[in-house]
Amino acid sequence: MEKLIRDIIEESACRFAELTAVKWLKKKEIFEINYASLNENITAIRKALLKEGFLKKHIALIGTSSVEWIESYLGIITGGCVAVPLDAGLPDKDLTDLINRSDSEALFLSPKNLSLLSSILADCPKLKNIWILNSDNNDTEKNSILNKISAFANNSINNSNTVSFVSDLKNIVRTSDNDADRPAPDDTATIIFTSGTTGKSKGVMLTHNNLASNVQSVNYYTESGTVMLSVLPVHHVYCLVMDWLKGFSLGATVCINDSLMHMMRNMGVFKPEVILMVPMMVETIYKRLAAADPSIPKNILANKIFGGNLRIIFMGGAHLDPFYIDKFAEYGIDIYEGYGMSECSPVISSNLPGCHKTGSIGRPLSNAEISFDNGEILVRGTSVMKGYYNMPKETAETLRDGWLHTGDLGSIDDDGFVS
């Protein structure tokens, strides 16, 4: 039977109700929320969106990782609306263009990005509601945000009730029995925009079954309560699916890294056992390891730098020189490299504990079939996207005869490992 992300979240809320789901820092104080409370907030947002008339609508999110962001994202998709996570670091013009191109009718916006309001209100006429992702339902924080809104919006919301708070949204129908119907497995859950480095960015449409089957097919399991540190941008599908959705499916505690500048500090604060990274991060950390006094025992140095518990780094985004895999192993840390792309939800193949080969990008997932056309990697399976939003020509070029043409060159060895 095909699963939904809603199934995964609700099952985890039952199985791991009192376990900590998310931890985060605020002014050096650690906050946390358990699985039961997290699901209550997700459900409250889902019910409120339904009451506000958002059914099968597209809703954008702009902001960095926060518990409010992930609750809103899951509130959107578990009720049948389509979530459109956007890169908060893009220029204003690019963000307004993506909001419009995605046909988003509402927006969840981080308080850190209030400076976008003027452009968004002026240039995104389809938006009916904007909810600020505030963390506390108290008047002091709200008044502070309202003052900033007045400054940034240039009086463009004087006659509108468009902008409000996610804390208020949660409380609209928290006790209501009127909940959104469960989406169908083949309904679009999310639109992920590609980086656009090789042309116009494309909106990758991923279904509920795409996402859920990717979560289930990554054959990695660990004890509930395992601590993960999420350091990658949350609008990237690799972080979203493998940190958050996979982590929640396992009953892990996902800790939010509030800034790349603070990553090393936060390893000491949260003491993670598992982290997802990209090669640049590993290369940067190794420079620090290599620069340390060689007389310091490696286990002591590893405890100081990584917090004492780190044992696994999952690697994606680009190829990692095997040199670093060997070097990190000397410090008791295993690196497992994988391969994927947004169009495949995202993981296609991965090295995993008990099944890995250095220098490869692992074996294909159980739900992915790989073929080759003049060396180009082709993929088909349940994680392959529905297509590019409103881009039929580009979709037809990429999805041909049931196969996704990745544009990447590769090969597969006699043991089934891709490289």
What is the tally of helical segments? 14
How widely separated are the two ends? 32 Å
Percentage beta strand: 15-25%
Query: How many strands appear in the DSSP assignment?
Result: 21
Strands ordered across the widest β-sheet: 2-1-11-10-12-13-14-15-16
In short:
This protein has helices at residues 5-15, 35-51, 67-77, 92-101, 117-123, 139-152, 166-170, 208-217, 237-250, 263-270, 279-291, 298-306, 322-329, 392-398, and strands at 20-26, 29-34, 58-62, 82-86, 104-109, 129-132, 163-165, 188-193, 203-207, 227-230, 253-256, 274-277, 312-315, 334-340, 347-350, 363-364, 368-373, 376-381, 387-388, 399-400, 403-409.
Observed structural traits:
five-stranded parallel β-sheet; nine-stranded mixed β-sheet; 419 residues; alpha/beta; 21 strands
Task: List the SSEs and their pairings.
Elements lengths: L4 H11 L4 E7 L2 E6 H17 L6 E5 L4 H11 L4 E5 L5 H10 L2 E6 L7 H7 L5 E4 L6 H14 L10 E3 H5 L17 E6 L9 E5 H10 L9 E4 L6 H14 L2 E4 L6 H8 L3 E4 L1 H13 L6 H9 L5 E4 L6 H8 L4 E7 L6 E4 L12 E2 L3 E6 L2 E6 L5 E2 L3 H7 E2 L2 E7 L10
Helix pairs in contact: 1-2, 1-9, 2-3, 8-9
Question: How would you characterize the overall build of this protein?
Answer:
By secondary structure, this protein is α/β, with parallel strands linked by helices. Helices cover 34% and strands 24% of the residues. It contains 14 helices and 21 strands. It has helices at 5-15, 35-51, 67-77, 92-101, 117-123, 139-152, 166-170, 208-217, 237-250, 263-270, 279-291, 298-306, 322-329, 392-398; strands at residues 20-26, 29-34, 58-62, 82-86, 104-109, 129-132, 163-165, 188-193, 203-207, 227-230, 253-256, 274-277, 312-315, 334-340, 347-350, 363-364, 368-373, 376-381, 387-388, 399-400, 403-409. The strands form four sheets. It has a nine-stranded mixed β-sheet, sandwiched between helices. α1 packs across α2, α1 (5-15) packs parallel to α9 (237-250) and α2 (35-51) crosses α3 (67-77). The radius of gyration is 21 Å and the shape is globular. The two termini are 32 Å apart. The mean pLDDT is 93.
